[in-house]
Automatic annotation (TrEMBL):
It comes from the Eukaryota. Its cofactor is heme. It comes from Capronia epimyces CBS 606.96. This is Cytochrome P450 oxidoreductase. Gene3D superfamilies: Cytochrome P450. GO terms for molecular function: heme binding; iron ion binding; monooxygenase activity; oxidoreductase activity, acting on paired donors, with incorporation or reduction of molecular oxygen.
Amino acid sequence: MITPYTLRLLAYAVVIVGLIKIIIARLQSPLAKLPGPKYTSFTSLVLKYKELTHGRRVYVHDLHQKYGPVVRLSPNEVSYATVDAAKEIYLSGGSGYDKTPFYTLFTQFGTRTLFSTLPRADHSYMKRYLADRYANTNIMKPEVLNGISNHAKDFLNKCMEKCSSPDGFADVYVHLHCFALDGVTHHLFHPYGTHANVNDKDLRLMQELSYHDSLASNYIIYYVPALTKLVAYLSPPKLSPLSNEYVLKTSAAKDPSAHSLLSKLQSHAKATPSMPPYGVPAECKDHLAAGVDTTGDTLCFLMYQLSLPTPASTRVQSLLHQELVQNPTVPFDQLPYLDAVVKEGLRCFPPIPMSLPRFVPDGGSTIEGYWVPGGTIVSCQAWTLHKDPNVFPQPLEFIPERWLDEDKEAVTERNRWSFAFSVGGRGCLGRHLAIAEMKTLLREVYSQCRTTLSPHMTGDMQMEDQIIATRPKDQTCKLVFEKIGQTWALQ
Ligand code: HEM
């Protein structure tokens, strides 16, 4: 007869045998041969803890510093820090490996969009279809550039107005996000775009989009879908009534401008009865979300950097000013120092600095000399690629001149390692728009003004990571704008 004691022993034995089996399997796994802390062969708990506490990017970077360009992060995940690995993961076959279900977190109105579609095949048709809207030739059209330029003027007027108020400073975090919202909605919806730097209703829309923190609940839902209801109960999802209403209403508007994304999507919807009911608004909302914090945060980090009270920042601002006043009619894409400042800004402060996860295809793959089985999650992160000292000497310093180096081969190599917009078929669709916006705004400001930190600026500008993007921790950046003559001497 089996006694309770025997039963307990049996239960223990089953658990122990199970654990031994798991340990043996993990030790025999091809990933066990990869560099990385031993515990990552057995558990993903440390990685998950870092994710939940905004610490993943720095944790992954520190592991690369310690273990080199290939690091096992968990029993099923590996991070790489070389351009060859990035080419294999994001460029092989054009679009690289398939996205993981992590991107399901980014569906809009319950509908998959370009960004959240996982398999390559489903994604590539839509990407090709929408590509012309974001091609440089479309972005460089006067109707697009004039819109961006007007919004840059609104930004500067707003900042000057704030600086002449008793406060004496402008919070550029707010006004740059308004500018980014206005710029992207001009492209998506013209003539139904926002004017958030002049209109309080649109300002509230920006606030709804940019001030939120749903990192922990998103990760929990992703890793333990069974807890979705509990998470929704304990921490109800933040609704976005203003932006949802704006996008739903606007995407049904008649006669959007021919250059807009909306006109293209509406034509597609007419010709494609099988398009999901929320296909057009979902795609628009996705591009809206993709275009506000990214451009707004990069500009914010960049203007903060230029405004620091250091000789290096003063020098960069002065050189930028000189180039801009000496070339008032040269198109923004032909100004080398402005280009170098933007590139260095994207290198030092990539707004999407974290791993972009992909699945190794069936049959496995050899990356950086190590074979990894199909189904392994692999990724690179811009934060680490941009800090390789062999490619970017003094990687922690902000040095625009590195992009103007006489050693052309070195500059080509730096461009190859630039990963702010990712690479390949799933790289950023809005890249040319974002660059046009950033250069137009910096030209508007630094051709006329000098910016310095306000004495009221006590906010923390450390990067605080969100689910895939990052942002300044305190979401505030108080600067003083001072109009200057054309002859600001190099100090
Ligand atoms: C400084 C500004 C920006 C940066 C650094 C940036 C960066 C990126 C990166 C790294 C990705 C790939 C993400 C991944 O694979 O997980 C991406 C994708 C994307 N971005 Fe941007 N982005 C910026 C601005 C914009 C703007 C202004 C728009 C459009 C209005 C936009 C639209 C998109 C879209 C639609 C995708 C998905 C592309 C696809 O899956 O094929 N982005 N962006």
